[in-house]
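Hey there, shall we discuss this one?
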Amino acid sequence: MGFSMKIVVVCLASILWDIAIYAQDATEIHRSAIVFDAHNDVLYQSVMRGKDIGKRMNTGHTDLPRIKEGGIDVQVFAVWCNEKYGKGTAFAQANAQIDGLMKVIREYPDDIALATDVARIRQIIEQEKIAAVIGVEGGHMIEDRIDYLDSLFRRGARYLTLTWNNSVDWATSATDETRNPSKLRHKGLNDFGRQVVHRMNDLGMMVDLSHVGRQTFFDVMETTSKPVLVSHSNAYALMAHARNLHDDQIKAVAENGGVICLNFYSGFLDPAHYGKINRLYEKHVAATDSVKRSSSAKYNLLPPAAKEQLRPSLSLLFDHIDYMVKLAGIDHVGIGSDFDGITSTPKGLDDCRDFPKITAGLLQRGYSEVDIRKILGENMLRLMEAQEE
């Protein structure tokens, strides 16, 4: 072997050694950290359709075995229904979904347990179980009644997303404030909306500002006495979608002491996403479809291979995390995957098993172990503790 070849071999061996050490470090950090996913829609998508998430499934993003494989210690199960549920039906639907989660917990007591505070979360993790936290996604599920809010809290709900895409009588959504402003009777919180926020503060229930409009967002900031949550949103500056946060909102959450959890949805990460859908639709579908369709409807008509082309690089998620950390600070950023509530994810994030790639990517971006632990879960635990004070 010549001298130059020996140098190449030595350099290659050194690189492989560094890669092995790096992978070992990422694995150890992820294993020992508390990993907290602030938003997952598997209750509506699977449990309410009769699927057994206690067993491994070959559909969707989530089941208990895959949550465990992904090293997720705390999973928020979102209670969600759309605007078709209203007075007389929405609260019942919320309770039916909580019933569904309770059934899973009863059937798999060795794998999962309900957590309503940080002390219980830590206890469940020590028992090597999944700590299940309940979040209610959509203020219409309290049907304009404070006693319904109280009831959901008693059942274990620890955050309420004030609106989904639909506005409620007392708070306006991002979708309506941007797309349907002329239809709104008011903008932001009204007096009852402020009562809801005050009551949530008193209960120790996190106010979640994902999905709300800018006016509602800033009205809450003037009203709340506790740090807020943004459970599954990204940076508007990197992807101009109404569901994402503008710079002034990001800074306001930091000043408030709250936490913003990053969403895995391609449409909230990639500025080219909707243009790609249109091009692929024109290429694969348009000739045989004369109906005027929304982006989501077009997406659903695409063949699987075309849908795969829509998945952006995982690096875009880390770009959004970097941006949030730069503006808000490391203490105000977390993860809210939105798994089973989204159709397209970055390449490599196929389901709950892929959470270790978040840790590896953060390490590769130069984040310290202390900072990685904050993003993975410690910031969310601090936010929950702040509600309990």
